Amino acid sequence: MIAHLLNVTALIAAATAGQSSVAEPRVARIRTADPHFAVKLAALFDRLPDPAICQAGELKPSSRAEALGAVNAIRAYHHLPPVEYDATADGEVMAASLVMAAQGDLSHWPRPSWRCYSEAAAKGAGSSNLSGGVVSPHLRFDTPRDDVRDWVTDVQNVVGGTGHRRWILSPFVTRIAYGRSGWETPDGQRSGASALKIFDFASEQSVTATLPDFVAYPFGDYPIELFEDKALLSFSPIVDKQNKWNNLRADLTNAKVTMSSGGEAVRTSIFAKRTDAIGYTTAIEFTADDIQPDVTYRVDIEGVVYQGRTIDYHYEFKLVGRPTS
C-alpha cells in the first residue's frame, strides 16, 4: 500500500497539566502494486464499502480477529497483558476509515466538508491510529496484520516518532476496535484506509494484570519481521503500575542510553525524549548503529528520576527469525 500513518499524540495531558492534542505529519511509503487488490480487499468484508452512497461496509469477524490477534501477539513479546475487542466502537472505526478513504486524506479531525463525513467518523478518527487515506492506481493490498505491524515499526512518520507503537504497547490500554475501508474503481483507481481505536470507549476498565517495569522495543528474542532498519528504538519506564497518570511524571531530562554487544560499545543517539502522554507514559526514542540479526544487544538506561529517586534499567534484545515480504 502507499500508506500514510497518523497517530493520536498528546491526547490527554498529565493530571496536573491540562489537555492537548496534536497530530504528527504523515509520510508516504510506496510498495509494489498488487494486481489482485480488489479481490483480496473484498475477502475482508461481509458487505463492501460503497463511497457513492457513503456506505461504510461491514468487516468479517475474522478480519477484526486478525487485527486483535496481531496486537496481542506483539504485546506478548513485551510481557504486556492482552487487550479485548470492543465491538461497540465498530461503527466509529468503520466510519472513520470510510471518510479517510473517500477523501483520500488523513486527519484526526476530519472536516464536515469531507466526503462521507459523520460525527461517528470524527469520534473514531480522534481516538485511533490511522493509516491510508490515499487514492492511487498503485495501491497495494495490506492485511489487518500488516496494518498493525506498520503501526508498531512506525517508520512512516515523517518526524520519526513512535506514537502508533506507544499506543499499541501501552500497559494501560485494555481494548481496541479495528476499522477498514477501500475499493477499486472501474478505471483502476484504488483507495484504502484503516483505523485502530485505542481509547475513549463507551466504558473503560482498569488494568488488573501484573505489569512490567518498562516497555522497550525491541525486547528479548524479537521477531525480525516486527523490526525495520529505519525503525527507532524506544523505552518507556513504568514507574507507577496503579495510577497511569503518575507515569507522565517520570523525569527523563538527564537520562542516558548506552548499548553494547559482546562487551563492545554500540554507538547510539537519542532522537527524542517524549512527555506527550501517548500511551500514558513518557518515552526515550533512540537510534543504534547497524543492528544485526541473531546478535544479542544489551541496553542500559540510566538517570530516570521519579519522586526524587534515580532509577536505572537494563535489558537485552536479539532479532530472530527471517524477514517476511
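^ that was protein a. below is b, sequence first then the C-alpha cells
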Amino acid sequence: MLYFYQKMYFIFTMIVALTLSIIIYQVYLVQINNKSYNSEAPIILWWTPFGNDDKLRNCGNYQCYFTSNRSSQYEKQIKSFLFYGSNFQINDLPKWKSDKIPWGLLHEESPRNNPIFVQEKTLNLFTYSSTFSRFSDVPLTLVDLPGITELLSKKYFVSTKEKTRLMHTKNLAPLLYIQSDCDTASNRDIYVTELMKYIHIDSYGICLNNAELDKRLKENYLEILNNGDFLSFIANYKFTIAFENAVCDDYITEKLWRPLVVGSIPVYYGSPSFKDWLPNNMSAISILDFKDPINLANFLHNLSNNETEYNKYLSHKLIDKYEINNERLKMALNKNKESNKFGNYVEEFECFVCESIQKTEKTKIVDKKHYDCPLPKDPLTHKIDHSNWWTQQWILGKCEAKILSYSLQNNLTINIENFEKDKMKLYDKNEC
C-alpha cells in the first residue's frame, strides 16, 4: 500500500512539474514575441492570418509590427485588426471598437465567397478597405492583369487570317467558352445557352460542354489556365466569352484580361464599368450593348467576316509601339511598375493602415461604394432574378449583417446556432 501511495505521489508531482513547465514556456514565448518588435511600434493583427507575420515593417515615415498571433490583441500597442474577407467568420471576431482599434478588410473575391459583404451594415464595421472597387483605399481592380507589357505583347498572337483558316480547316467556332462553375450569381450559362442557338460556340468546360480539350490541356486544366500552351490555344479563337461569376462594379478578373493578353476579343458580362479599364474603347464587346443574344450573334457574325473591322478591336496587338490612350489604366498599372502581383497590393494595404492609424486625420467608414454588388439579375431580362439561389443568399446576407452589426455594437457574444435561428426569423418575416 505504501508503494502505491509513493507511486501516486510521484505521478502527481510529475504532472504538476509538467504543467508548470508548459506555463513557464508559454510565458517565455510571449516575452520573446514581445521583444521581437519595437515596444513603441503599433501592432497590427491579422485576425485571419494572411499578410506579413511577426514582422516589423517600415511604411514611409512610420513603422508597424504585423502579426497573426492573437495574444497580441491584449497588448497596449494593438492598433488595428485586419481581415481577409473569404475567411471572415461571424462567430470568430474580436471586440469591435472602431474608435480605438479600427478594422481593415482585404477582399478581392466576389460575393459568392462571403455574401455578407454585399451589405452596407457589414461594410460599416470597417474603417479601411482593399477590394476590387476603385473607391477602396487600396484598389485591387487590376490585380489579375499581368501588366502593360503583356497587353501589348504578340507572344501568343494569332493573325485574323490564321483564325479564319482554323475555322474552316479545324472547324473551330468563332466563340470560345470555358467554364466549370455552373452555379453563379450572374447566371451566365442562361445567356450562353440562348446565344448558342444563333452562333457556333465551342464550350470546353463542364458547363454547357460540347467540345473536348486536347489531352495535354484537359488534365487539370483549371491549374494551367495561364500556362503557355493553354494561352496559345485560346489565341486561336476570334472571340472569347468572358462572363464573371457575379456582377459588381469594378469586379474584373482574368476572364477579361486573358483574352486581351492573347489577342482574342472578349465578349464581356460583369462589371458595368469595365470599359473604364480597357486599353481603348474598342478592346472588348459588352453584351449590355445589345438588345438580346440574337442581336449580339448577328453582330459577331458580321464582325468575324469583316477582317478590317475585326482588326480594329486588336489595335493594341497590331500597331507597333502602340500607345494605350486610357490614362486611368496606365496610372493604375504604373503604381506597380515592378510587379502587378497580389502580394504587392497586400503590403501596400498593410502600409496604408500603418500610416493611417498614426495620423491624426479623422477616420471614415467603409461603405457600399467599396463593394458594390446589387441583387443578381437575369442577364436576358435584366430584371432581379428571384429564381436564382444566389438572390436568396443576398437577402439572407442582409439579415446576417443586421444581427452581426447589432451584436458587435452592443458587445454581445455570438452563438452560431442562435444566430442562424434569428437570421431565419428575420428572413421569414421579411424584416431584413
